[in-house]
Amino acid sequence: METLETISKRASLKPNFSEREVEKVKITKILEAARLAPSARNSQPWRFIVVSGKKKVENVVTKAFFGFNQAVKDAPVLIIVCANPKDDDIHEGREYYLFDVGLAVENMLLAATDLGLVTHPMTAVNEVELRKVLHIPEEVRFVVATPLAYPKGGSYEEAAQERLSQRTRKGLNEIVYSDVWGKP
Amino acid sequence: METLETISKRASLKPNFSEREVEKVKITKILEAARLAPSARNSQPWRFIVVSGKKKVENVVTKAFFGFNQAVKDAPVLIIVCANPKDDDIHEGREYYLFDVGLAVENMLLAATDLGLVTHPMTAVNEVELRKVLHIPEEVRFVVATPLAYPKGGSYEEAAQERLSQRTRKGLNEIVYSDVWGKP
């Protein structure tokens, strides 16, 4: 898909997953997209744990995800994104590892959308339990998780249609200023 | 451009800017791309100050940017990205405003790349001075700034060629694990 079209069609879809396996070559393209993101001083603080197969995904989700996120336990692939804050810049209290991981994750979400896959970034997990089940070291922080799956019954575009029609975003006039803060 | 191509061609280019004006319709498309990013609980903490015109850009850069970033003072447009941390989720010390702004900024960088424009995200500014010159309220944090400009003498692809050939990124084997942390 064209870039601007993919950006406008990316949405966090409901977990209504096909059982169809996600091809390894697609997973690699998605991780490759994340890898190419910029980062402060090129520190590349992002790390990805790719959990594959229904049983393994179900185990992680059941143990570490909060109730309302349990629905992703049926995904064929779950990507857990982590980072070590010490791998990155801190400027005046702003921890750039979180910003940099955001850059990489957006690439990941767009690549997946372009490849027809459903994503849904989730932040509400039990980090202590996640650490246990995935052997994540103490100094590494969980940032976000997303399922990767084909939508059930139809294409990504069909699956996204309803969600996109209900999208709520602030208008540009609420988030953009000219020349100085507060000036429309 | 196709999405995966744009992701692979986006690069932080040297400030070698054409004097050509950046069309307003392009700036709007770029901000619109940022607007459509996801965010934790749809909080949309991002705010953008679009500084336009050589004199205004030069004023901001001269007063608030560190020495090695002074080179962007010739850009026709400078976008300053800010956020109010209180507008967003904090989970166990992770301030998601930074992550969410990262998602929006990557959309912005990709849209600009797709439209043939040079970007270069910069984090090293004097926040106190920036606050003064742009009237940014005390509770709002600066996150990142980027120039927007056409490259001097040639297309974006020509301008990016050298930089892309020198790109250094960790290999996928250094940033991706299977099923649990540390497993290749």
Would you write up a description of this structure?
- The structure is a homodimer of 184-residue chains.
- With 184 residues, the first copy, chain A, is of the alpha+beta class.
- Chain A has one domain (3-175): NADH Oxidase (3-Layer(aba) Sandwich), CATH 3.40.109.
- Chain A has seven helices and six strands; from the N terminus they run H-H-E-H-E-E-E-H-H-E-H-H-E.
- Chain A has helices at 3-9, 24-35, 54-64, 96-114, 127-134, 156-165, 172-175, and strands at residues 46-52, 77-83, 90-91, 94-95, 141-148, 176-178.
- In chain A, the strands form two sheets. Chain A has a three-stranded antiparallel sheet. A two-stranded antiparallel ribbon of chain A has the order 3-4.
- In chain A, a hairpin with a 2-residue loop joins strand 3 (90-91) and strand 4.
- The first copy, chain A, is globular and about 50 Å long.
- The model of chain A has no long low-confidence stretch (mean pLDDT 95).
- The interface between A and B is large, with 77 and 78 residues.
- Strand 1 of chain A pairs parallel with strand 6 (176-178) of chain B.
